[in-house]
Amino acid sequence: MSVKFRSIFVGLLATLVSQVSLAQASFPSKPVRLIVTFSPGGAADQSARLLADRLAERWKPHTVVVENIIGAGGNVGAEVVFRAQPDGHTLLMVSNTHAINRVIFSKTPFDITKDFEPIGMVSSSAIVVAVNPKAKLTDLRGLVTRMEQEKGEMNYLTCGVATAHHFAMELIKDAVKQKATHVPHKGCGPAVFDAVAGQVDTVIATMPAVLPFIKQGKLVPLAVTSKARSDSAREIPTVAESGIASLANFEVENYYGLAAPAGTPRDVMAKIRTDLSAVLAAPETKVRFANAGLDLFVVDGPGMGEILKADVVKYRRAVQTAGIKAE
């Protein structure tokens, strides 16, 4: 390489680096909208608000505004982000519900695995299998034995049809080759309340909804469906730890992560990912999430994309097995 050419190349490279740095420095240039496709107060909403507060500290003077846009199982809010200007100023709080929607809704204008750019996973809220004390069960093996004895007559509560909680139990049933009757509710709160009241003994719901009643002795936890135990309640074993061979590799994560519309500039994506990583690495972030009954679930953008794709395959199998349909 000649000295002259080398000088031109170095100059161009320096200009490019300068432009990227300038673009990163200019983001955000206005308030950032973080769209949550579920009602206020739930695990997705809590995750979004905790994260928004921390990101806003780094993005001053601009704010991060959480907007709850619900409908069609999360598709309405996701479509808002899909149609937004791909400049990083409109982000989606993704959950495994969006992977489920990819399976159960045959016609949507977007594909969560193709039309969004994963930024990274943020948190998870463990799904807990729990029972009323009067059921006199202490572990998942006992619940499976009860399913076998009652030959499909055993009822179980979840937070709703085609939710992660519903899919988790259907996948357990499929693995152990047993049957039980699904009793869906409109949210985790009502489902847990009915289990506490003894209307139905068994409930599958998120940790924040179940944990207060576990601490009061009004519900007995049998297992969490995640790969690892929850930091919110380390004493509760995973489904994979049940000792049941067909469940040895069982894993259903109830996760929340950030995504942007496809086509968002690389430099902006790099800026958001860098700031997200810094926020999640801060010790106080873990404390804040734990206090809300949430676990940090840190996965980079490519890893998040792979998880979404794998879950679409997993949930499609559950739909085919159990005949699950959207309400």
Mind explaining what this structure looks like?
The protein is of the alpha/beta class. It folds into two domains: 187 residues, 3-Layer(aba) Sandwich (D-Maltodextrin-Binding Protein, domain 2); 126 residues, 3-Layer(aba) Sandwich (D-Maltodextrin-Binding Protein, domain 2). Strand 6, helix 6 and strand 7 form a beta-alpha-beta unit. The longest helix has 23 residues.
Shape: globular
Largest sheet: 6 strands, mixed
- The end-to-end distance, rounded to whole angstroms, is 66 Å
Number of helices: 11
Question: What is CATH's topology name of the largest domain?
Answer: D-Maltodextrin-Binding Protein, domain 2
Q: Overall mean pLDDT score?
A: 89
Q: What's the helical proportion of residues?
A: 40-55%
User: Which strand order do you get reading across the main beta sheet?
Assistant: 2-1-3-10-4-11
From the structure above, extract its key features.
327 residues, globular, alpha/beta, D-Maltodextrin-Binding Protein, domain 2
Structure described in brief:
The protein is of the alpha/beta class.
Per-chain topology:
Layout: H1 3-25, E1 32-36, H2 43-58, E2 64-68, H3 75-82, E3 90-95, H4 96-104, E4 116-124, E5 127-131, H5 140-150, E6 155-158, H6 164-176, E7 181-184, H7 188-197, E8 202-206, H8 207-215, E9 220-224, E10 255-261, H9 266-281, H10 283-291, E11 295-300, H11 301-322
Parallel strand pairs: 1-2, 1-3, 6-7, 6-8
Antiparallel strand pairs: 3-10, 4-10, 4-11, 5-8, 5-9
Helix pairs in contact: 1-9, 4-11, 6-11
